[in-house]
Amino acid sequence: NRLERRYGWGHLHFITCSCYRRLPFFASERRRDIFLRILRDVRDRYDFALLGYVVMPEHIHLLLSEPNLRTPSTVMQVLKQRVSRLLRQRKKRPSSQMRLWHDESLLRYPRFWQRRFYDFNVWSFRKKNEKLNYMHFNPVRRGLVQHPKEWLWSSYRFYSVGGPVLCPPNPEWKPSRATRNPTTNPHVYTSKRAAPTRSVHES
Fold it and tell me: From 157's CA, which of 11, 147, 148, 191 has a CA 20 to 30 Å away?
C-alpha cells in the first residue's frame, strides 16, 4: 500500500507521530519541554496555525493547518529531525573533558521516532472539536492526571484558563491567499512506503 497525503484543500491536519517502537522517550518533563520549544520555533518558521497538541510519553498529536511555507510533510520532517538531534546530541560534562552523550538512554535505539506519521484530514468544525477533545483528554484516559488542566504538555490550559504554556496555540492565524483558496493547487502526495496501520483513535 502507498501512503497518500492530501494537501491544498484548506483542511486542518490531525497528526500522530510515535516514538521508536512506541517507547516512552517523552517520559521526562525535560524532554517534553524541549519538544514544545522546538514545535514553537518550527511553527514560526513555516507559518502555520497550531490549533492544539498533546505530548504523551510515547507519542504526540498535533492539530495544525497547512503552512504558508511548504507542506505539513516538510513541517514534520524538520520537527522530527530537530527533536531527535537535540535529544541525542553529544555534550560535555562541565566537570570532565570526556565527551558523553546528552542522554545515554536513547543511544540503545537506532532512532528516536517511528518512520513516517499518521495524517487525518479535518474538514469540519465538528471534527476539529472532536480532535481537540481527544487530545486534551488523552492524559486523563491514560491515568496520568485526574483533569486535563493538570497535564502541562497539551494545549488545554490555553483554551480553558488562558494560562501560560510553552507553545501557545495561534487560532487567530490567517493563511496566505494561495493557502486559503483550496482550488489553487490541491494535490495528493504519494509515498512508496507502506501506510501505518495504527488507528487514529488509539492513544
Answer: 11
pLDDT digits (tens, 9 = 90+) for 23-81: 999 999 999 999 999 999 999 999 999 999 999 999 999 999 999 988 999 999 999 99
User: Concatenated DSSP letters for 40-57?
Assistant: HHHHHHHT--EEEEEE-S
Q: What is the DSSP letter of 168?
A: -
Beta-carbon count within 10 A of 72 CB: 23
What span, in angstroms and rounded, lies between the C-alpha atoms of 52 and 155?
5
Lowest mean pLDDT among 75-84, 92-101, 120-129: 92-101
pLDDT of residue 109: 87
* Dist CA 10 CA 66 (whole Å): 7
Residue 61 CA to residue 154 CA, distance in Å, equals: 9
Place of cell 476539529: 128
Question: What is the chain's alpha carbon radius of gyration, rounded to the nearest angstrom?
Answer: 17
**Run of H or E including 77:** helix 72-88
Spell out the residues 6+ positions from residue 104 whose beta carbon is closer than 8 angstroms to its own: none
The owner of cell 517507547 is 23
